[in-house]
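During the practical work, I selected for study one protein's amino acid sequence and its backbone structure tokens, as given directly below:
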Amino acid sequence: MPDRTRLLSALAPHRWVLEPAVAVVLFGLWLVTGLPFDLAGALAVLLYCAAVALSRVLPVVALEIAWLAVLAELSEGSSLPLPHRLISAVAVVIALFGIASHGGRVVRWFGFGSAILWAPALAYLFTVRGDLKFPQFGPVIGGYYTSQGVGLLMMSLLLAVVFVSAWLLGFLVARQRATATAGPVPSLLLWLASSGGGASAEEGLGDGPRLVRRLTRPQLTFDIAGAVAYVFFCLVADFASSLVPDDSGRSTFLVLIVFAVAVALRRMSPAVSLAIAWLAAVVQMTTGHNILVSDIAVLIVLYATALYGDRVVRYAGLISAGIGAFVASLYLTLTSALAQGYFNLLSSQLTGMALQFAFLFVVSATVLGLSWVLGLLARTWRNARASRHAQIAAELDRNRAEEVVVVEQERTRIARDMHDVVAHSLAVVIAQADGARYARHADPDAVDTALETIAATARSALVDVRVLLAELRQSQPEGPQPSLADVEQTVEQVRAAGLPVTMERRGELDGLGSAQQIAAYRIVQEALTNALRHGDTTRPVSVVLAQSGGSDGGPGIVITVRNSMKTPTPEPLATGGLPRIGHGLPGMRERATLAGGSLSAGPAGDGFVVTAFLPVVSGVRA
């Protein structure tokens, strides 16, 4: 791949040489056919080759020159040989591809109209003025036999199919190149068709339409093996049924090989596969074959256009099914009439031919349309399956995201608990240690009491911290969780630290759930801790736990913690008189909110009041 990238990068500025080189090759083929002394033929070929050479750099001029070449041939009275006609048709195909690939929108659609108009013109040059003659029988209209008119019509249809296919491939190349972005090296076909003039060889493809799809090695191997199996099956079937006469074996084998190429490319490039299938059908009809076993490739290609093609290719396959049914029915009807000599009695056999054409058209349209519809159904099923997989993946991602959110919320809760435990315990320990230090000379027994309180507080804090750390390691908490009954122990610890606390219970307080009880315990603990650290420790703190109807009319519990501040201040302060907002007040509000309640805190006179409401869980109260 790196070697290929470097090679394409080196050749990228010289891509404009491709079309002139092809034009030189076409002119050389004209010389090889032995026609260099025909002035009219030489002028026409020069114009066709000039259209090919300028189709990339000047598509407008190329279109005009191609029209001049066609008009020059139509105005020429002499008949030119068949090799000249073939070279001119190939030149028109290449020029149409280049004009559709590199022209603007207006020029591109003028090219499409030109493809439609050039088909009957070149068919006229091939049949009426050329060497490709149809049998002359039937009524004479305007000096021409009816068979010649039928031959002109068939040739016009076949050339229109070839020209429009070349234009469609160029259109798809232009559409894909318009969506190209920087990225990996595209397919060689797109690289050759890309605009020259120093374009990078690493023109990538975005998420837009793709003319050539990148296949994995197993997919490519499977498609090639399928094409080989298709060839083997057709050869065996033809040999077994003796459908192939000896004098037409070469043309039949050629049709089979072209169809096999279309089958091999059906998944890599449905558009190219469709164009090649049309080419094989044209070769089959121009060589005089009727229905062959190899025609099942048409069904395979139509199925692939509906299954793998984008919107344009998909509808091109549908249109091809309709046009193919019409052309095949007309061809089979005419060949059947020719074989039975109906043209000698055209007036009496016209009704039978029309009925035969209608029957063949209905059957052909049904078979071709059914293959396309099956491909569309397979595409719908594939998209539905991909949508289900995407939905499942999205649900998994959502579940993972919810799990991450839950884990984060749990870690936040544990962090709050850790803050409350550590802050409360350290506040008690510090207060006891300071009190013991001041009282050791006057009251030595107070030192022992303080040390006992410090030890008990530290042990309790250690147990709580271990429980919280265990919660970090496991999804379920270990050990007993604090409840409303443990508030008395917290009050006693704060009293032992030197802060007078009065506690009062009002009403029945046994209707709280576990989450509400933990929240009530932590709110009281945090409020007393902040009162001990930042409030006036010489004045008592009151804690009231009261049954209440709730602010919204529902049953619940109201927690009120009131303490005195050290120095009155007109500014709103945090809990306990702290002139800044730390983690205590937001943590208490968050706990109350998560428990379904509410909390308010702020100065009230010369004190600070924390009021929380926690609802009773429905069904808990007896």
